[in-house]
From TrEMBL:
InterPro entries: PNSB1. It comes from Picocystis salinarum. This is Lipid-A-disaccharide synthase. Signal peptide: none annotated. It comes from the Eukaryota. GO terms for cellular component: chloroplast; NAD(P)H dehydrogenase complex (plastoquinone). GO terms for biological process: photosynthetic electron transport in photosystem I.
Amino acid sequence: MAATTAHVFGAAVPRTRAFGGRKRHAKTRATSLELVSPEDEREVRGTTRPPVLLALPGGDVEQLLAFPLIEAVRNKNPGCCVDVLIPSRAKSAYGINPNVRYTFVEELDGDPSPDQVSAVLGKLRNKGYAKLISAKPAGATFSLDMLTTNIPERISYISSEGYIFNWIANWIMKGERVPTMKMASLGASMYDMLWKLALEEEAPPKKPLNFKIPAKAKQLAKEKLDAQGLMPGKFILLQSSPVPDTDAEVKAYDWSRVGANASTPVLYVTKTTKEAKAYAGANVAVVPTVAELAALVEMSKGVVCANTPALLLGSALEKPVVLVGEDQKIAESFVPGGKVQTVSDPEGANSILAAW
């Protein structure tokens, strides 16, 4: 059938529809969401339902704990894409999550500048999202910001910051009021109320995390083992809690006692080069991403850690895990049903490691 044209201000423009049929796409497909409308983007990528956006504050641990909710959203809406709005420090967590399409960065834990907020809202606006699901306790400011995104259904925890602000948030968002405490203190249950609000069903019993380690991350992890002269399955991975620079040497000294008399070598993992310097003389690897950390955990014989991503990853990969500085109640809160041993301090782990 011959192509038809329309004349707009005297210029011939190819029609995009023929006889009211389905929109035709050019042979050159768009490579960025910025180049196509939300409807076109869904057709190009083969999805059948409008996408969903989740706003998730917190660091790597909080993001990992959200994986079951993200997976449930996709299962509840077959064919939809899921995007996340997260702080910059937690972006690497999604390198192992196959259920997330795009990550947008906004400092949800603090007070971003007006310019930062405007830039993020500009990216989210008119992307065709059907629903916003937010774990950030929404106050008046955040609720009004989300209102400008034109997302029709907005579900969120509601902040307890005051009557008027609470009223505004409740008017804009469908939500559940939560106390002004750190949501992370609830462990794996921190998203249960949000699950019920968003999916209209009770959160199921907790299961190990479901994730996928990219081949590139496994390759990088193996290179770091080779650099330390370590073999897969023949080392213990140790991840301490992040500490301020002023305390790094003190904390490193405490943790460096772990495995001092163990027959199996210990690999210390840190997120920054500066922190790694405190472990001079030991086997240490700078591991900036959760994907690389997951690959190293998978290759390890076992894990000794604070309440860090290594705790969740080690439990999910069914590795022996020793949690340092927390009691059994906390261990059960973050990895329900997981086989985790707890000790009060790093040196307390040595008696356990002797049996590994």
